[in-house]
Amino acid sequence: VLTISGFAESESSEGVSFARIIIDPLIKPATCRFITQGVVDFYKNDELFAELDYGTGDCDDLATITKDGETRQITLGKRRRIFRDNN
Fold first, then answer.
1. Which residues are within 8 A (CB) of 18 and not within 5 positions of it... i.e. 6 or more apart?
2. Tens digits of residue pLDDT in 12-53
3. Angle, CA 70 vertex, CA 85 and CA 29 arms, to 5°
4. Distance of alpha carbon 69 from alpha carbon 61, whole angstroms
5. Cα–Cα distance for residue pair 15/5, rounded to 1 Å
């Protein structure tokens, strides 16, 4: 079993700061291709704007993302840009 915890911070050339903080440790069993549980919060300029929840331990390619008060299921392994600005 691989357990991941911690955070990452970055700043764009325009001065926009981003952070990803693992709230509940990410768990990836050796017998599963995907992370099976854990929660990551995403911040932009110190404001929470999204939360990614990998679930409760089932070996599947599903997670939920909550952004702007809306929660939807996503399929892991497909690239998504959740930091995209609409401006």
1. 9, 10, 11, 12, 42, 43, 44, 83
2. 999 999 999 999 999 999 999 999 999 999 999 999 999 999
3. 90
4. 23
5. 26
- pLDDT tens digits along 50-81: 999 999 999 999 999 999 999 999 998 865 55
Report CA-CA distances (Å) from 71 to 7, 31, 43, 44, 63.
23, 28, 17, 18, 10
Question: CA-CA distance, 23 to 80, in Å (whole number)?
Answer: 21
Rounded to 5 degrees, what angle do the CA atoms 4, 9, 10 make?
A: 135
- In angstroms, the CA 31 to CA 59 distance is 8
